[in-house]
Amino acid sequence: MFEKLFAESGFSLDRLRALLEVGAAGSIVNAARGDAVRQSQYSRQIGELEDFFRTRLIERHGKGTRLTPNGRELARISRFFMLGLSNFRRGCLTEEQTFRIGASATFNHHFLVPAISGPLLRNHGGRYVSEIATKDEVERRLHELILDFGVVGQAELSRPLQTKTVGEWNVELWVPKAMGLSQAKAAQAFERGELPLAMARELDDLDVRLNKGRDAILVCNSFLDSFVALEGKKVAALLPGFLAPKKNARSFVRVQMPKIDSQVFRFHLAWNPRLLRLNPHAVRQRDWLVHILSKQIAGP
User: Fold this and answer.
1) 228: Cβ–Cβ under 8 A, 6 or more apart, which residues?
2) Domain 96-168+266-298 classified CATH 3.40.190.10?
3) Which long-range contacts (CB under 8 A, 24 or more apart) does 221-225 make?
4) Strand pairing partners for 198?
5) Would you identify the CATH topology of the domain 171-263?
6) Do the domains 96-168+266-298 and 171-263 sit in the same CATH topology, yes or no?
7) What is the pLDDT of residues 217-236, one digit of tens each?
8) Residues with Cβ within 8 Å of residue 172, at least 6 apart in sequence
9) Confidence of residue 213 (pLDDT cuts 50, 70, 90)
10) Which of these, 195, 101, 189, lies nearest to 151 by C-alpha position?
11) Domain limits, the chain
């Protein structure tokens, strides 16, 4: 049945592992981490795989390299296969499993880490790795089985990925009182695009219906950074409701903006059903994550 796979040299688990490591790192140089011997080894092993499959698996990209479409497909197949072997071995040895979860920096800080490090975790078992990733990165890594689960702001992902809602939230406009603007004047300045504003790139992953031509004076990586900028009392900020100023709320005012306040956003736990078929224990993890994240987002 598999005679042709073993009829000639060039195919091995070590070579497939090299392809996976290079694909995950983004280039041979990154995967080798400055080790010239290992860099040469990766190049040789991937070259042998290319000879075996009669196709290019990596290509030049800028100053580095990346996997070709065939390289990405072989990496996906290899990762699925090796995950199956790893899960089988862990089951035989009754080893603890590790689950990788990707989400935005704000979600990781405010919900994910508190939820999985709480009392329920000690009774649940397992190991968890939280990773900061954009919606597109989460989606790609779920397809490639690099992540076990992810949290995104959109329910519709490319097939076969599936999602389940774990909570909802809204965006609010906050202005420091030190700016000397009334709510009405702040709203007008916002509409004209004249309000000194900090905005988070995390908004890019949402369908936020705002004036796309509006320029922020400060673009931050996350809502957490926007919150820090707001506390400097020099700029306004668009923040999720759960990050609204509390300790020194008297120093800020929330500007009522119906077209912003009326928008409701949702967090969704996402997964690849192929992973669940490969690792039945992940079904229990998925259900547990839905439960604890929903509880964490809902609050007391």
Assistant:
1) none
2) yes
3) 221/105, 222/104, 222/105, 222/106, 223/104, 223/106, 224/105, 224/106, 224/109, 225/198, 225/200
4) 218, 237
5) D-Maltodextrin-Binding Protein; domain 2 (3.40.190)
6) yes
7) 999 999 999 999 999 999 99
8) 238, 239, 240, 241, 244, 254, 260, 261
9) very low
10) 101
11) 3-81, 96-168+266-298, 171-263
Q: Which of 186, 174, 291, 190 is nearest to 242 (CA)?
A: 174
Lowest mean pLDDT among 48-52, 69-73, 92-96: 92-96
Q: Which residue has tokens 């936020």? A: 208
Question: Cα–Cα distances in Å, from 159 out to 220, 273, 276?
Answer: 31, 10, 15
**pLDDT attached to residue 212:** 43
Tell me the β-bridge partners of 127.
Answer: 98
Q: Residue 25 corresponds to which tokens in the numbers above? A: 């790192």
Which has the closest alpha carbon to 11: 40, 49, 37? 49
Select the more confidently predicted residue: 279 or 237.
237
Residue with tokens 């690099």, as numbered in its chain: 146
Provide the token pair at 158: 């490319």
Query: For tokens 């042998």, what's the residue?
Result: 48
